[in-house]
Write a structure and sequence with these properties.
By secondary structure, the chain is mainly beta. It has one domain. It has helices at about 85-90, 155-160; strands at about 5-15, 15-20, 55, 60-70, 95-105, 110, 125-130, 160, 175-180, 180-195, 200-210, 240-250. The strands form four sheets. A six-stranded antiparallel beta sheet has the order 1-4-5-10-11-12, with no helix packed on it. A two-stranded antiparallel sheet has the order 2-3.
Length: about 250
């Protein structure tokens, strides 16, 4: 701790590939003939399991996590307010800020053709000429215009996708694209008031998702869908929440 501040900060750079994996975002993985992100974990072709070898469902290239605690510089023994009257000094002393920070890359997703061109168990992936893995970005809607939505692929990019021929698998591998990144920071303001040796009262204010940042889900990834490339208002975190709490100990 220095000048009342202590913190931990961790950064991870990671790459993970496999033929089948599980990301808790998808809840329970079950075999299905429907075309969904969970379907990509079942063999596209039972005679060629290597077709499924690609980035893992939980692969996140960059991850930054941090926590901190800061003793506010007010009151007795601090740079500010140390010479205030005793009652006021007691009120402003001992306050702390504590918080967390999370910033990660987006998770991968598979673009499907909407067709069963190889087998009847799992739909084939789509084909795309000129697609790069970092293609796609969040285009947030102007909701003053009725019918506007959030999109990941532009109309020009959507036209780059096509369905494979019968008996063929699309040229896009499983989990080729990367969805929206994730950012969230929480903060707490807290103070312990002591009344003699036996009694104390903890007062705190907690703000979850302090910046009220929406973290969007992956877009619709079925090229035969009229919603292909659209995220709409689908988010994976809660809006900002502020709560006041107290605890009396004796």
């Amino acid at each position: 701790m220095k000048a009342g501040l202590s913190f931990q900060l961790g950064y991870t750079y990671a790459i993970s590939k496999d033929t089948r994996s599980f990301d808790p975002v998808f809840t329970t993985v079950t075999q299905s003939t429907t075309i969904s992100q969970t379907s990509a974990n079942f063999p596209f072709d039972n005679a060629n399991r290597d077709l499924n070898y690609s980035w893992s469902d939980f692969d996140r290239r960059h991850s930054l996590l941090g926590t901190y605690v800061y003793e506010l510089p007010f009151g007795k023994g601090k740079p500010f307010g140390g010479d205030t009257p005793s009652v006021l000094n007691y009120i402003i002393s001992g306050w702390q800020l504590a918080g967390t920070l999370r910033l990660t890359s987006g998770r991968p997703f598979t673009v499907f053709s909407g067709l069963f061109t190889v087998g009847q168990t799992v739909g084939s992936t789509a084909s795309c000429d000129g697609c790069t893995r970092n293609m796609g970005a969040l285009h947030q809607a102007n909701y003053d215009n009725t019918g506007n939505r959030n999109w990941w692929f532009t109309e020009v990019q959507q036209d780059m996708f096509s369905a494979p021929d019968p008996g063929e698998q699309g040229n896009l591998p499983r989990n080729f694209f990367v969805g929206p990144s994730y950012f969230e920071t929480d903060i707490s303001v807290l103070r312990k008031f002591r009344f003699g040796e036996r009694f104390s009262f903890d007062l705190r204010v907690d703000a979850k998702n302090l910046t009220n940042t929406p973290n969007f889900a992956a877009p619709t990834a079925l090229i035969t869908s009229s919603l292909f490339g659209r995220i709409n208002a689908d988010v994976v975190n809660n809006a900002r929440r502020i709560q006041l709490g107290g605890k009396f100990s004796f």
